[in-house]
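Support request, please re-run this one:
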Amino acid sequence: MELAGPLRVERGVTSVIGSGGKTSLIAALARELPGTIVLTTTTHILPFAGVPLVTSDDAGDVVAALAGSRVVCVGSQAEKDGKLVAPELGMDVLAALADHVLVEADGSRRLPLKAHAPWEPVIPACSARTVLVLGASGLGRPVREVVHRPERFCELTGCAPNDVATPELVARAANAEALADVALVNQADVAPDAARELAAQLGVPAVCGSLRSDARWTMGDTRQARGPQSREDGHER
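Re-run finished. Output below.
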């Protein structure tokens, strides 16, 4: 199936924000998109298994890595946890070296939903597209259990931490923040009806489906395609 088309991913820098499958989406796009691809972050990520890693600040090293592999990961080595942080090379520099730069521009502490602090997300100025990911597995559960920064979510929606995260509340928060051009409601296999309801209430074009199963994907214009498998480790970040 195609994700890039429904999500309107074009050549250049694409930022992925939100929660409930950012890393899985980036991996899926890297498999699908043509040409050379740099995977990177403005926050922090774990290196991608099987993908060559460049941690230097030398653009020549990125060029050399792309000559040997269509997809490479670029970042600076963090001091702990084995994670990568933002590379020394600017996103505009990376965009000049590869056809696509896919940026994980947000953190969510592995929760399916989130609201954003004033300093979040960290979207590069040269980003051509920003994709918001929302995890449908958080729908129907208490806000305090499934939302990263629940206090901010409550401010945006007028709810209480013990209230259930309904499609209406999640859409209200996302629409109030208005951070993205397009959205992916992921994990729709867990709560298909609620996921579709959420997608329908978002203020940007939305795709609804599951990155971890061979699910059907739908758009507001009713186009459909089959979804890809998720990362081999089965986790969605």
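The first strand starts at residue 12 and ends at 18. Residues 218-235 have pLDDT under 50 and may be disordered.
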